[in-house]
TrEMBL record:
Region (Disordered): 29-61
Keyword set includes Signal: yes
Full protein name: DUF4232 domain-containing protein
Protein keywords: Signal
Biased composition (Gly residues): 32-61
Domain of life: Bacteria
Lineage: Bacteria, Bacillati, Actinomycetota, Actinomycetes, Streptosporangiales
InterPro entries: DUF4232
Any single Pfam family the record assigns to this protein: DUF4232
Domain DUF4232: 68-198
UniProt keyword annotation of S-adenosyl-L-methionine present: no
Signal peptide (from-to): 1-20
Amino acid sequence: MKSRTTALALAGLALGATLTGCKVSGTRTNPGGSGATPGAAAGDGGGAAQGAGGGQGTGGGAGALDRCHTAGLSARLGRLDGAAGSRSSTIVLTNTSGRACRVYGYPGVGIAVEDGSALPSSDQRVGGPPPHLVLKPGGNAYAEIDWAAPGGADPQSQSEAALPRLLTVIPPDETRALRAPWSFGKVAEQGNFRVSPLKPGAGPA
């Protein structure tokens, strides 16, 4: 009787071990168990990678660069053109900051006397849309400007014209102005300038 009880006990242990082995094997291959968890992790990881990649992509373009600030730019005037009461030239901005920067839009333009005191003036934006520009160290962007010159045979036009000594230039998104020497004579129409958006390069030679 004792031998039979022992045999039954051993048979029960063997059956339990067999069932336990089946359960462990099922956990390892269950597509709804551990298989689902790596899938979710991969999805999270893929989303994070795409987000980081998008940021790095933006970083490689103009969007991640700081904009060009007044303190890191210089301004000069190009050659004088025009006739019959109309004058034109270019404003050339040069990146002097030692690092690349981005610029977009129109410069603000005004006129002043030798000490920087402003004369009455206004600017009107023409052309566009502006391109997005990246200025490397030493790189240039230019805007075209035109204005009215006083008529030689019109005394009133001559008397009302302003005689600036400086052109003041405010880079896009800035508040401080650069100064460029002005040697183009009087400006009529209360100092009204028509200004194009900034473009790459230094403009016409």
